Amino acid sequence: MEKRTKSGTLPRFRPFGVFAYLEECAFDSRSRAWKKADLFTLLIELDQFLNVKGMNPQPSQIVEQLNQFYQTVDAAPVNQQQVSLIYYKAALQASNDKIDRVRRAVVIAGVLGGAQDEDVIDQLKVQGLA
What we know:
Helix content is 65%, strand content 0%. It is mostly helical. It has one domain. Helix 1 crosses helix 3 (59-74). It is globular and about 40 Å long.
């Protein structure tokens, strides 16, 4: 038997909405967003951002923020920006390493929310990850 909402419609399957939003973002095929660990982190954090926090920014805004961040991550070993370097090192680790998954999640959540690097570092410290 199908579960229906009070209005009688079938409930929306959250991942479909996240996938549709990600498709609207239209990241370049060479974007870091499509790398396995980065993609999984992005999908989960987009779900949190869109469905749990109820945010609904324009996909172009998210693409701009993430592309800018991913550029700093790709240059992290050279530029040594702390948040980018933390993410870079966490992304190099196996995607099944929980601590690095959580580090990536905290950083991407900060990027999606427009947080400053200092705020992301503080959040990582609070969670014992920095």
